[in-house]
Structures are given as structure tokens and as C-alpha cells.
Amino acid sequence: MATVPEVLGRIAGTPGPAAAERCQMCAIEVDDAHRHVVDLDSRRLMCVCRPCYLLFTGQGAGLRFRAVPDRYLSFPGFTLAPGRWADLEIPVGLAFFFRNSALGRTVAFYPGPAGAAESDLPLGTWDTVLADNPALTEPTPDVEALLVRVPDRGDPTCHLVPIDACYELVGRLRLVWRGFDGGHDARAELDGFFDTLTRRSRPVDAGAPT
After folding, report:
1. Residue 151: burial class (beta carbons within 10 Å; 0-12, 13-18, 19+)
2. What's residue 115's pLDDT?
3. What is the reported pTM?
4. Which positions ≥6 away from 100 have C-beta within 8 Å?
5. Alpha-carbon gap, residue 119 to 122, rounded angstroms
């Protein structure tokens, strides 16, 4: 079974063995567009074929494995009150937030030179962010996240994305990260990722059903 760093390497395109990728459940060969499931016990992403993926799409089934969906949403009205990001104690302008069902709470991760780093999230502050933005759609636990970007210039943005997209981004940033904030190449990678993400996401306005 692959660890998250191994999956990140595949997603980010780092060199690896020439052997064909195989489903980590049934061992059938899969292509680059294969899907993922989360092992809720080990917190690992697994590369799977479509038939195995479909076995775990029932989110309420109480299974050990959960399929990562393909839902992308944006929230044009997203706001952060002055000082709110600093209150969250996240040292860079990017983080993703998801509910860990094993812990029974929301957790936050942000990118860095070593990959994804977990933040000691002040839950009261994050609850305030949610209260300030009632249009935010609640991510499916374990497999979806709210990805928040706070750029040096411009307004903060928020997207609901599959959890593997978050680790894809972290893996790509890790390859080009320089210094404390990532440097020019990391910012360029981030801009390209969010350009694609914006085109792919369906906007959700306040009060609109999701």
C-alpha cells in the first residue's frame, strides 16, 4: 500500500520506475487518470481502478475505505476579516481544511519544503470563519477539503476540492520550494494551479443550493 508521499510523487510527476501503475486493491493496470480512495484507518491515499473505486462511493456506508469524489466548487463571496488569517496561526498564505472523522474534528494542513505540515488549528477561530461565510459548502469528511488562499495582493479565495487535489498541489510546490515562503517558482506554480482550479470550479453564491 502506498504512503501519501509515494502517491504525491506519482501525482507530481517525479521520476519513478518504468513499471505500469496498478490498482492497489486488485492489481489491474491503471492509467494516469486513475482515481483514489482514502484508507480511513491509516489515513493513506490509494490508487485504484474504476471498478474498485465504485465499490466505495457510498459515503454513508461506514466502510474502511472511502472514494475521493470529483467535486470542485468556488465561493465568490468568501471573506476573511482583518487579522483572521493570523489568528489561525498558519505561517503561509495557503492551507486546506477537512474533517478527520477518526478525530471527530477539522484539521488544517499547509505546504512547505518537506510537504504537507499540520497546523495546530484554533478551532474557535475556524468556526468564526465558517460563520462569516454561510455560503460555504461543507466538505465530505476525509475526502474533500476547503482550500483557502490568502495572496500577498488581492482578495482571499476559497474552493471546495477533492482531498487528492490538495496533496497534488503540495507535492508540486515541494519540488520547487525555496526559502521560507516558497519563492518565485512556487508562486508561479500556485498561480497556474489556481487558474486551472478557477476554470474547473462551479461558483456557489450565497443562498444557492449545492
Report:
1. middle
2. 87
3. 0.85
4. 43, 106, 107, 141, 142
5. 9
